[in-house]
From TrEMBL, chain A:
SUPFAM superfamilies in the record: 4Fe-4S ferredoxins (SSF54862)
Native organism taxonomy: Bacteria, Pseudomonadati, Pseudomonadota, Alphaproteobacteria, Rhodospirillales
Domain 4Fe-4S ferredoxin-type stretches: 32-61, 66-95
Entry superkingdom: Bacteria
Protein name: 4Fe-4S dicluster domain-containing protein
Record key words, sorted: 4Fe-4S, Iron, Iron-sulfur, Metal-binding
Alphabetical list of InterPro entries matching this protein: 4Fe4S_Fe-S-bd, 4Fe4S_Fe_S_CS, PSI_iron-sulfur_center
The keyword Transcription is assigned to this record: no
GO molecular function (one): 4 iron, 4 sulfur cluster binding
Keyword Iron-sulfur: yes
Alphabetical list of Pfam families matching this protein: Fer4_7
From TrEMBL, chain B:
Species annotation: Azospirillum lipoferum
Record has Transmembrane as a keyword: yes
Residue intervals passing through the bilayer: 6-31, 71-92, 104-125, 137-157, 169-187, 251-271, 283-301
Membrane topology of the entry: Multi-pass membrane protein
Keywords, comma-separated and alphabetical: Membrane, Transmembrane, Transmembrane helix
Record Pfam families: NADHdh
The name this protein goes by in its record: NADH-quinone oxidoreductase subunit H
Amino acid sequence: MAMLKTILGNLLRPSRTRAPADMPDVPTVYRGALAHDAARCTACGTCAFVCAPKAISFTQDPGVSVSWHFFIGQCSFCGLCAQNCPTQAISLDAEVPTGMNSAAGDGLRLESIVRLQPCTRCGAAHVPLPDAAIAALWGVEEAERGYCPDCRRWAASARLRSAFIPAAAEEVHHER
Amino acid sequence: MNTVWSYLIAFAVWPGLLFAAPLGWLELWFMRKLVARLQGRRGPPFFQPFFDFMKLLGKQTVIPRGVSRGIFLALPLVSVGAVTAALAIVPLPGNPVPSLPGDVVLLLYLMEVPVLCEVLAGYVSRSIYGQVAAMREALLSLAYNLPFLVAIIAMAQEAGSFRMSALQAAPYGIVHLLAGVTFLLALPARMKLNPFSIANAEHEIVADSHIEYSGPPLALFKLSHAVELVLLTELFAVVFIPATPWPLVNLLVYLAAGILVLGGVTLLATATARLRLAQAFRFYWVWGGIASAVTMAATLVR
């Protein structure tokens, strides 16, 4: 009789299951599908370093590009990569990953190619800094924007040098 | 020639396959939806039984190694054929088949064929689960057939004839009520519903006796079950619900009665847990036996 009361009560109440259309909202901190933005990546390797199951790795095509690789079969969705990325190039979206891993190991593999650019000063191939970082460091119109890390260091020390020895400022541009 | 055509129409169109299959799917959907609602779930969409059938039709048929191909494929066909033929005999309003002397006996024989097919399917498939299910089904049919057969035979005794039309036209009396209750007693086990869902106990033996079936043959078994639902509910309505002189009203009353019976049986199935085979057997031979004895006594007292 208690069972009858329970099930007849169920009949009068609305259903406890939800249809796909009225699913609850995904929390904003939900860690779902991983996305990588090549335009913001500096190929610093922090993500590959902090990734405990080694789902992220980098390969290089020297002088041309750096490739960021991700294999979902090893990912535990811990979010450390997104948390540690200095330029927010990695994000864990609210969506479900498109292809989860199968027994055959043919799960989703992502590859994101970061093109190297020649330094505007020395011509050495380097990974350009993201626009936001460049704007914060050097301003928008500065000539140092396209410099490689070596040239940036050189330019910084040159600025320091010219601050102490104003006469040396003219010589700087004749080097190299 | 005319008679042949009327039999063909009764088998294929009304009240046969063309009518019984959609009605069976409707009844299946109603039961599944009701069970879901009683359990606080949402339940399947209206066309789900149809979708299930169509999907199974498109699937591959796997025949287990060492199983005779002919009998493996023939069993579902025989099952659907027999249950549809049984439905064609039921004097639903507008049924073109003429009333035969002794068609009640033919009906009872045809209604046993799907059960036999299930038992054979279980044994033929060489699966241990199928064999356990077949054994359970066979034993259970010995139990529930007591009240089931007695309910119909008591009505034949009451009407003094083994014609379905005579059973339908019998003046309403106390025997109708008693035999109706006896019939309802057998119904959950015949429909393989919960307190007696012993042969298709999916938690114990994975599935029922057609566990090795797949694709179109399984679809035919499912169709056979759907038509059997229609047959059982409409048989109950035709025999135990008093008929009115208006065929259309009769039809509506029969359909409503069928849905009502299904609702009651589903309620019982949702509210109860599965019995063991010995318990079910004892239930049918004690309580079913008492109900049968009372029903037969009532026919004789008159």
